[in-house]
Design a protein that fits this description.
By secondary structure, the chain is an alpha/beta fold. The chain has 19 helices and 13 strands. A 6-stranded mixed beta sheet has the order 1-2-12-7-8-11, with helices on both faces. A 5-stranded parallel beta sheet has the order 6-3-4-5-13, with helices on both faces. Strand 7, helix 11 and strand 8 form a beta-alpha-beta unit. Helix 5 crosses helix 6 and helix 6 runs parallel beside helix 7. It is globular. The protein binds pyridoxal-5'-phosphate. The site of pyridoxal-5'-phosphate (PLP) has 16 residues, from helix 11.
Length: 464
């Protein structure tokens, strides 16, 4: 298929053949580029990285969109991403200062701006239909507040999202955001989204788009904080660092891999999974073995409870020398609990990509939360704790280790209470969140009901 422009990829999500979109060439950040970015503010770094991938938005527009995405009303930390040294050679990169207190805001705030810009230019609308068990839904909704060309229908399992995460979604009252609480589990929500997308007629009529983690624009936006954190932590440009990343769908750490390929001296990418250890197993054995949905265990780091890692296909593509045919062949046969084995074929290639991995269990995350609180007075969320636990197992003398902080502890209060015997602090701007009125509609797990609800939204408006 012919190459696409950036804005087409932005609105497309998945490629028409069901594959994932990747750039034709990985652009370079040379040592001189890194040196010139050294003391720059986050939006400046973001602009430089985005310009390497965006071929169809003029520079002044891109600068404005990046500026709006990372403005102080969205991200409360003055540097957007905080960098804190907790021990000699151990740093936390805080990615959770955005509106929903999780790292998904880092990408979705920019995606919201890019959507609005492109839809305005084309004079088109987009209907986002998504499924969420927590973080993605609230982050996507907050990114689309006030975006006149985008409507959001977010499906969440009724009564099964944490009270704080539910409140982050349901307390929104926006004309373009509809919360649908599905009588069922997360997989039911995801199946409905698939069914809605499989109805080609409906999809075209209602201009259904996606904001899930396979959207290339999200990966691009996430590359930025790897560059930024590197520049703030490395003693001088060129010196190596290691980065530990709590991982579910492989979106976050894949962005780190692209940063590494671009030339950022990240020597090792440390993949941390929870009990759902599809990826730790792959990096230990070379076998990628997708789990059946029923074999996914609910854990205390719920945003990493996955059966297969959607973005992993992009990594396998790189492992095969950017060969789309070999990659498609591997993934074509991948059923709901299928798999493949790359131990013989690409074992060498895997180690050359700098990945190491490990998994962290409930007791590990509790112990890590306790230790950081006791020794450093620092409370971290359970996902971040997984990253720190596995990161420290791979710590090397004299190589700075950066652990990515992917959420604030207040989102996962029950686990913090278990670890510390007290509630996490609530940021002032969300102090009354749980008391605000909620707006959501309970709906049966039936794609036809959801389609009817979407159609009703537009009835009589002449749109979309
Ligand atoms: C989504 C999420 C993750 C996992 O990120 P992936 O890109 O899916 O690997 C980790 N931690 C938190 C808090 C999340 O919300």
């Amino acid at each position: 298929m012919d190459p696409l422009r950036f804005a087409d990829v932005l609105l497309l999500g998945l490629a028409p053949d069901g594959g994932l979109v990747v750039p034709e060439h990985v652009p370079e950040l040379r040592p001189a580029d890194l040196a010139s970015l050294r003391d720059r503010a986050y939006p400046e770094v973001a602009l430089t990285v985005a310009q390497r991938f965006v071929d169809d938005i003029p520079e002044p527009d891109l600068r404005r969109l990046v500026g709006a995405a990372y403005a102080p009303d969205a991200f409360t930390h003055p540097d957007v991403v905080s960098i804190d040294q907790v021990e000699p050679d151990l740093y936390l990169a805080g990615l959770s200062h955005g509106p929903t207190l999780a790292f998904k805001d880092m990408a979705l705030q920019l995606v919201g701006q890019l959507f609005e810009n492109e839809l305005d230019r084309r004079d088109e609308r987009l209907t986002v239909v998504g499924a969420t068990s927590g973080d993605t839904g609230s982050s996507a909704e907050h990114a689309m507040i006030g975006k006149r060309k985008v409507d959001v229908f977010m499906l969440s399992p009724h009564g099964r999202t944490s009270p704080f995460q539910a409140a982050q979604m349901y307390t929104l009252r926006e004309p373009n955001i509809v919360n649908l609480a599905v009588r069922g589990v997360f997989d039911d929500c995801q199946d409905i989204v698939k069914a809605v997308n499989a109805d080609a007629r409906f999809k075209a009529d209602y201009r259904i788009g996606a904001v899930n983690s396979i959207n290339w624009a999200r990966v691009m936006a996430q590359i930025v904080y790897y560059v930024f954190a590197y520049l703030r932590v490395a003693p001088s440009p060129g010196e190596p660092v290691d980065v530990a990343v709590p991982t579910g769908n492989f979106g976050n750490v894949y962005a780190g891999f692209v940063a590494r390929r671009m030339g950022v001296p990240i020597e090792r990418l440390i993949v941390a999974t929870n009990e759902n250890d599809v990826l730790a197993e792959f990096f230990a054995t070379g076998r990628y073995r997708v789990r059946a949905a029923a074999d996914v265990v609910p854990t205390s780091s719920p945003s990493m409870d996955i059966s297969k890692a959607s973005n992993f296909e992009r990594y396998v593509y790189a492992l095969h020398g950017d060969d789309p045919v070999a990659t498609a062949a591997l993934f074509a046969g991948l059923g709901p609990d299928g798999g493949f084995d790359l131990a013989g074929e690409s074992g060498q290639a895997v180690s050359a990509t700098g990945f190491v991995a490990g998994s962290s269990r409930h007791a590990d995350r509790i112990a890590t939360i306790r230790r950081l609180a006791k020794e450093h007075g620092r409370v971290v969320d359970p996902h971040t704790a997984d990253g720190i636990h596995v990161g420290l197992e791979h710590r090397r003398p004299d190589v700075p280790l950066i652990c990515l902080e992917t959420a604030q502890p207040v989102k996962f209060a029950a686990t913090i209470r278990e670890a510390l015997g007290r509630d996490p602090e609530i940021p002032p701007r969300l102090a009354d969140l749980l008391d605000r009125p909620q707006h959501y509609e309970v709906i049966d797990p039936d794609p036809e009901r959801v389609k009817a609800r979407i159609a009703a939204h537009y009835a009589g408006t002449g749109r979309p």
